[in-house]
Amino acid sequence: MVVRGTIMLVDKFIDLASKAIGDTNVITYPKELEKYSRDHSLVKPGIPSCIVRPGSVEEVQEIIEYANKLLVPITPLSGGTNNLGGTIPVPNGVILDLKRMNRVLDIDVRAGMASIQPGVTFEQLQEYASKHGLRALTPVELPKTSSALSTYLDLAPLYGWVYYGEEILTTMTVLLPDGTLLKTGQQAFPQIKWPYVHSHASPFAGLMNYIWYQSQGTLGVVAQGWVKLKPIHEVVEAFFVTVNDDNDLYKIAREIMWMRYPRDMVIFNNVDAALFFEDETPNYGKKTAELIPSLPKWVVAFTLRGRKEGVDIMVSDIAEKLQGIGYKLLDEVPGMPKAKEIFLSEVNYPSGWPKYSKYRGARTILPFICSLKDVPIIHQALKKFIEKHGFSTNYVGVTITPTDRVGVVACNVAFNREIQEVDKIRNLYYEVAEEMLRLGAFYSRPYGILAKLMYSRAQNYYEVLMKIKRTLDPNNIMNPRRLTLTEDL
Ligand SMILES: Cc1cc2nc3c(=O)[nH]c(=O)nc-3n(C[C@H](O)[C@H](O)[C@H](O)COP(=O)(O)OP(=O)(O)OC[C@H]3O[C@@H](n4cnc5c(N)ncnc54)[C@H](O)[C@@H]3O)c2cc1C
């Protein structure tokens, strides 16, 4: 009988992997394993048995073959920056670190498309694109060290750019859990000239891609993808609207969005505004805490991009529209002198949660989508809940990226790892998530404990999902336990 991931089988796996990809690319030093055992989240750490670092598609295929043969679970990792336990391995599991696969393979400047490997970070893609007069779309809350490919795969439709939508990844190469290489969309047809064309009307592209969106490494390894880049404009300006009345937030956001002018748009509550628009000085956390009470309840921030004359017209149109509803277009945030400079820099090279975690040492996130109208209600409920359990409302940050249809919301609770807060926050997490679900929050990416919350309410959907998992990954070697809280299929 073969027992999943026993020490003997893992030893054999290490031996085979070392022969296939070189022993310097199979890491077993305890200090290095420890680094991969945890993330910024509240998820309990788990030490991997080894880290394998393949450098090519063929090497990944070999690793997958051995994992199947020896029933060793593997967890793909591209940037390693996700923060809800997505890359924490199961016992005796192996980390498949794809950072060595970090090449931009091709670019079509006229089409604004680049073909990238999973190890390409946002910073790298941004620098590469800028040399060709283009820019990469980066989500403001992520660190620039996140993998562009893995993030685009994971975010749609959680994150969206108000002007460009959420599907930035068009066609891709996937290594299925049995090692089969699959190309989606036009890439599947070598004779077709434009390998990146994504056609929703075709079952070969959109439909196929969706199976791997947000699959958290459970259905295969994405080894390449064509991603959209955008032009660099002559003029880029940042603007702000401050809002103190919850009832006006939806109206303001909608009016600005519906003009279809802003290219990047983010809404912050006062806590996240303080964290976002403050410089990372040694005093960062302390200064932030002092700032929060003096800031407006909400800050709506957006960029306008285009030719000088075009931007001028947009500015006057938006200013007029806002004036009509009693608001002003600002080019700075009162009390935050560097807001403009920081916003323009963050939309290209984001600092992400490592910066915000400096406020109280750590920060946990509840990501969901909801109607923009419901945001203030959910926010108030969360603040009350947090206060009832002895936390300050100054620890509750909210960042929203509005898209055409919904608000994409990240509720962030800052906490301190050194005092007894960790257990308390961990215990509250599920309860808060459940309460917010009742109020209209939808967890479109049910990570970790949220999987239980969501799938227990959608039995039929969950059964079909498990059927897909069983069909594609009969040995259950690909990042087990991510789609469910148990290892059973
Ligand atoms: C507004 C916002 C909110 C966010 N909220 C959260 C959040 O709440 N929790 C969170 O964890 N992240 C969150 N993210 C991060 C994001 O969704 C991705 O998890 C992250 O950007 C992935 O980048 P990474 O390179 O660090 O991936 P990694 O940390 O390396 O991996 C992320 C997940 O994808 C899988 N994976 C990685 N590479 C591949 C690959 N090549 N093929 C197949 N599977 C792969 C991994 O196994 C893992 O499950 C948020 C981002 C934004 C912008």
Automatic annotation (TrEMBL):
Gene3D superfamilies: 3.30.465.10, Uridine Diphospho-n-acetylenolpyruvylglucosamine Reductase, domain 2, Vanillyl-alcohol Oxidase, Chain A, domain 4
Pfam families cross-referenced by the UniProt entry: FAD-oxidase_C (PF02913), FAD_binding_4 (PF01565)
Domain (FAD-binding PCMH-type): residue spans on this chain: 44-232
Molecular function (Gene Ontology), one example: D-lactate dehydrogenase (cytochrome) activity
GO-annotated biological processes: lactate catabolic process
Alphabetical UniProt keywords: FAD, Flavoprotein, Oxidoreductase
Name used for this protein in its record: FAD-binding oxidoreductase
